[in-house]
Amino acid sequence: MVLIRNLRNIFLIPELARKLVFTLGVLIVYRIGSYIPAIGINASALQETLEHGSKVLGGVLSYLDIVSAGSLSQGMLFALGISPYITASIIVQFMGFTIPYFEQLTKEGDYGYKIMNQYTRYITLALSISYSIGYAATLESMPNVVVNPGFAFRFVFVLSLTVASMFVMWMGEQISLMGIGNGSSMLIFASIVTRFPNDAIQMINALQVGNMHIFAALFILLFYFVLTAAIVFLEKGERKIPVQYARRVVGRKVYGGQSSYIPFRINTSGVMPVIFASSFLQIPTILAGILQWAGLFKGLTAVVLSDGWRTSFLFNVLQFALIVFFTYFYTELVYNPVKLADQMKKSGGFVPGIRPGKSTAEFFYYILTRVGLLGAVYLGLLSILPNIIYRFVYMPFFLSGVSLLIAVGVALEFASQVESYLIERRYEGFLSAGRIKNKV
Known about the structure:
This protein is mostly helical. It has helices at 2-10, 14-33, 43-51, 56-60, 62-67, 71-74, 83-98, 100-105, 109-140, 151-178, 183-193, 196-209, 214-235, 272-294, 298-304, 313-334, 337-346, 358-392, 401-424; strands spanning 238-245, 248-250, 253-255, 259-265, 349-350. The chain contains 19 helices and five strands.
C-alpha cells in the first residue's frame, strides 16, 4: 500500500507527470523504429546466415548489436542505435582532457558546452556514415542477404541508416531537455531491458523441451539476482573524506567554520573502462576476420572466431587486466588530486589531521588509488563472471555484466531524479524507505 501511494504521488505533480509521459513517448517511438526493416535487406536470409556460423558481424559489431536491442543483427532501420553518439561523446570528452582548446571550452560554462556539443554532433555524423558503410560492405559479403547489391543499395542504405542514427541522437537530446534522465542512457536502457522478455521465453522453452534442468534455471536466476544486488550496493557506495572550513571574519560577519565532506565513489569511472576494454578486445576479432578472408593463419583465426573464444581463460584474463588498467587510466583523467587540494586550500578548507596543499593532494591520491583498486576489481569480476557461468552452465541466452551494470545504473539514476522531484514538492519518497542513501 505504501508503494502504491508513493507511485500515485508521482502523478500529483504535473511537471513530473509531463516529463514521464514525454520520456515514455520517445522510448515508444524508438522501439517502433527498431522494428522497421532497412531498405534492400532480406531479413530472413540475414538471420539464417548468422545462425549458420557467420562470425564477422558478431565479432566486429557485437557492441552495436547490444545497444540497439538486436536491431543490427536483424537488419532494422535503427541498427546503429545511439552507439555513434556515445562514441563521439567519449572522443570529445577525451579531447577536453588532452587538447588545450577543448580544455578551455570546458571552463567556459554554457557557451563552451554548446560548442563541444556541436562538435559531438559532427563526429556522430561522421561515425554514422563510416559504420553504415562498413555494415553495408559486411552485408554484401553475405550470400543472398542484399536484394540488389551495388552502388544504389550502398547509397540508399548508408543514407537511411545515417539519418536514422541522427534522429536517434536527437531523441536522446530531447529526453535530456524535456524528459527524465540522461537521454542516451535511457535509450540504451530501453534497448537492454527489451531483451529480457525474450530471454525469459527462451529459458521457459529450454525447460519445456528438456534442454535445461530446473536447478540450472534457478541457479541462473539466483546468480543474476545476487549480481544485481551487488551492483546496487557498490554503485551507491562511496568513501567520504571530511573537510573542515576555517572561520573568517569580514566586517561584522563570520564566514566558514562549517564541516562538509568530499565523496569518492567506489566505482569512480563508471562503465567507461569496460567499454574501452571491450573495444580493445574487438581488435583481435577484426584482424582474425581479415586474415580468414585472406586465407592466412587459418588455425589461429579459427580459435579467435570460434564460439568459445569469449569464454576462454585467455580472453577473460585479458579483459580483467584491461579493465583494471583503464579504470586507473580514466580515474587519472577525471580526478586531479593536486587541483582539488589547491581549490580546497583557496576556499579555506582542510582535511582534519592533514596539512593543506601538497600533503592533502598526496592523501587524495592515496585514497583514490585504494578505492580505485576496489572499483577496478569490482568492474573486472562483473564483466568476466557471466562469461565463466556461460562456459560451465547451459544458458539459452547471454546477459553480459556490462549490460546489467548499465541497466541497473540508469535505473538508479532515474529513481534518484524522481525521488528528488517528490521530496522537493514535500511528498514521500519514491521508495518506501525514503531517499536512496549512499553507503559509507
